[in-house]
Amino acid sequence: MNRRIHPMNLGHVRWIVDRLEASKGAGMNHSAREVRSRRSNLAVPGSSTKMLEKAKGLPADQVFMDIEDAVAPLAKPDARKNIVAALNEGGYDGKVRSVRVNDWTTEWTYADVIEVVSGAGANLDCIMLPKVQGPEQIQALDMLLTQIEKSEGLEVGRIGIEAQIENAMGLIKVDEIAAASPRVETIIFGPADFMASINMKSLVVGEQPPGYDVGDAYHYILMRILMAARAYDKQAIDGPYLQIKDIDGYKRVAGRSAALGFDGKWVLHPGQIDVANEVFSPTQDDYEHAELILDAYEWYTSAEGGARGAAMLGDEMIDEASRKMALVISGKGRAAGMQRTQTFTPPE
Ligand code: GLV
Ligand code: MG
Fold it and tell me: How far apart are CA 158 and CA 167, in angstroms?
């Protein structure tokens, strides 16, 4: 399956090849879809032509155009039209272009998908499905997409699916949801709807509910999503932080999911984009270090380097597991367009 390669993501192609190699023999599942950088996922209401236009010039990795909760019921038909026009006009170069449709329990989903994909399928990368409650909802979207792709003469299977986990049923079925279709690219945590779904005693997304003083109330949910994503080789994306003026708060909450291994987070305001891009990229030092480990390990395992399984890089012992960890960091750095300044020189 040929995925469109964004120019800024060329380095990522090598990473994917490496990851596929790394997964061989390790018993890992993987799909052949292109993995795209999604550190910052900018939410844009489809009802606002002004914001659809403004998003073109912002440095977010992904733009998702919304027809769901950021758009009032009466404005949904116009939002579909605005989105089709914006996608076809173009200008989102280098960004992943996604559209969030309404969930399958509403009366809007089929018309959202048909109008957007028939109208702009060639200029669209993913459909985001909110409030997913089971694998059959992904399969239904997959079948509908396949029909539209066939009838419009589009490449079948190119458009990906992003699955939002926003309620208890979605979370307990997240493994099946991740495995439901090769189109699934991301598993996204929807904290606002999720907190409502489980009756969490807080109104502030991302903050700990008052009375819970023994750790992070979101840890289980984030880890559950991350395990499903990693087991099925999908990206794990953290959802919105609604206090858009509180950049320190955003950084703190984003830092938690980034530390666990999430690939990116939603941004609701341009002011959150740079923070997301920074928090979900490796530091320059970690990136350089990872690239050195990869080069050094390749050399030491070669015949010229002594065909060794474990070797020293400075004061550090490196082995096959170090290579796997380095691959993750280097992949994120390359996808973010980071450049290395040091090269590995084999010992004399
Ligand atoms: C996002 O859709 C959320 O509910 O947090
Ligand atoms: Mg939601």
Answer: 28
Residue 99 confidence (pLDDT): 98
User: What does the pLDDT read at residue 332?
Assistant: 85
Tokens encoding 193: 């709807």
Q: What is the pTM of this model?
A: 0.86
Alpha-carbon distance 236 to 71, whole Å?
Answer: 25
Task: Indicate which ligand has the atom closest to the C-alpha of 196.
Answer: 1
Residue 12 has a pLDDT of: 41
Q: How far apart are CA 227 and CA 238, in angstroms?
A: 14
Mapped onto helix, strand or coil, the DSSP state of residue 20 is helix
| Ligand with the closest atom to the CA of 239 | 1
The DSSP result for 135-184, as a single string, is HHHHHHHHHHHHHHHHHHTPPTT-SEEEEEE-SHHHHHTHHHHHHS-TTE
Question: For atom 1 of ligand 1, which residue has the closest CA?
Answer: 190
Domain borders along the chain are 1-13+283-348, 33-279
What's the CA gap between 197 and 171, in Å, rounded?
Answer: 11
Give the distance (Å) from ligand 1 centre to CA of residue 308. 49
Ligand sitting nearest the alpha carbon of 242? 1
- Give pLDDT, residue 319: 93
pLDDT of residue 9: 40
All residue ranges of the chain with pLDDT < 50 are 1-31
Candidate of 194, 198, 257, 268 to mutate for ligand 1, largest count of ligand atoms within 8 Å of Cβ = 194
Indicate whether residue 206 lines ligand 1 (CB < 6 A). Answer: no
170 in ligand 1 pocket by Cβ < 6 Å?
no
Tell whether ligand 1 has an atom less than 6 A from the beta carbon of residue 103: no
Please state which CATH class domain 33-279 belongs to. alpha beta
Q: Ligand 1, residue 69: give the atom nearest the CA.
A: 2
Which protein residue's CA is at the shortest distance from atom 3 of ligand 1?
190
Q: What is the pLDDT of residue 32?
A: 59
Distance of CA 48 to the CA centre of its chain: 24
